[in-house]
Amino acid sequence: MQGKDISGHAPGGQRQRLADALPLDTPFVVQIFPVYACNFKCGYCIFSVEKESRGFISDKNLMDFTLYRKCVDEMAQFPRQIKVLRFVGIGEPLLHKKIIDMVGYATERNIAATTEIVTNGLLLDQRMVDGLVAAGLKRLVISIQGTSAEKYGEVAGAKVDFSRLLDNLAYLHRNRGETHVYIKIIDTALDGEADREKFHSLFGEYCDTIAVEQTVPIHKAIDFSLILKDKSNALTQFGLPLGQVSVCPQPFFHMQINPDGKVVPCYSWDYPAILGDCNTENVREIWNGEKFRHFRRAMLDGVQHASQTCIGCNIIRYRWFPEDDLSNDTDRLKPAFDCPSSKC
């Protein structure tokens, strides 16, 4: 196996202590949510739930390329490079017909140190691989759903040509250039230790890093008891010890731009707030604007003060990194997010 096993570690590598960097004039992570659609219906994902039961997601299913270019041009106005521009969201990013052009335009404008896509990998044919590599994609995260076509049917509710999938990944590995390939799978998609070894054997040759991540109960609309069964929930998605979160760090370093241009502060599918609209507002001004500042300041008083959604949210608890803990720095940070007297 060539891929380095990073199970139990932060997949992006060493993280800096967030509290020491705040407040940020440039987000560490901007998440582009390009398409609200998926070719899978994984049981642990919201696409296994009927659309009317998901709540509000987006007024549009596809991000308009003109809007995307506007957003990138405005991200170029930040004082620093974004650390990560990530194409993900609620759906499969490679379904967007302009995804290669999106990556290419971000590379051309040099707005991010790393441009990343999180994908299920089914559409990674030779044309897609060649296009993304040439466009300057720095990191490709591929979420595998099983070690056989039968397992894909069980986990993802999809018919998959498994041999073709492996052939495409082999082509990707040979032609990845400077693109880092990370292949992962959730533990409940594996049937015991022998299947885990099979996963590493099948996919370890086609990546730079590889991991088995934990299945975690982060979406209220899904009955995770059927998926987790007797599995303990004592670990985060990345295999770290689980703890309580009194202050969510996500709005302090991250923003997500949805297909309709609306901006939300975190990874939650049940939005705690919509903090801007890129159709009518500037991305940099949204990040530094009153709505974001007010939301962050409320969060420093605890999740119960930020929004009702935040009170019951499990996402950050199960995607927690100790470097992001702000609980011991709230008093020091609050003045930086207090409302200027001239605006109150």
TrEMBL record:
Segments forming domain Radical SAM core: 24-258
Signal peptide: none
Cofactor(s) recorded in Swiss-Prot or TrEMBL: [4Fe-4S] cluster
Superkingdom assignment: Bacteria
Swiss-Prot/TrEMBL keywords: 4Fe-4S, Iron, Iron-sulfur, Metal-binding, S-adenosyl-L-methionine
Transmembrane segments: none
GO molecular function per UniProt: catalytic activity; iron-sulfur cluster binding; metal ion binding
InterPro entries: 4Fe4S-binding_SPASM_dom, AdoMet-like_SPASM_containing, Aldolase_TIM, Radical_SAM_PqqE_MftC-like, rSAM, rSAM_sf
Pfam families: Radical_SAM, SPASM
PANTHER family: PQQA PEPTIDE CYCLASE, RADICAL SAM DOMAIN PROTEIN
Protein name, per record: Radical SAM protein
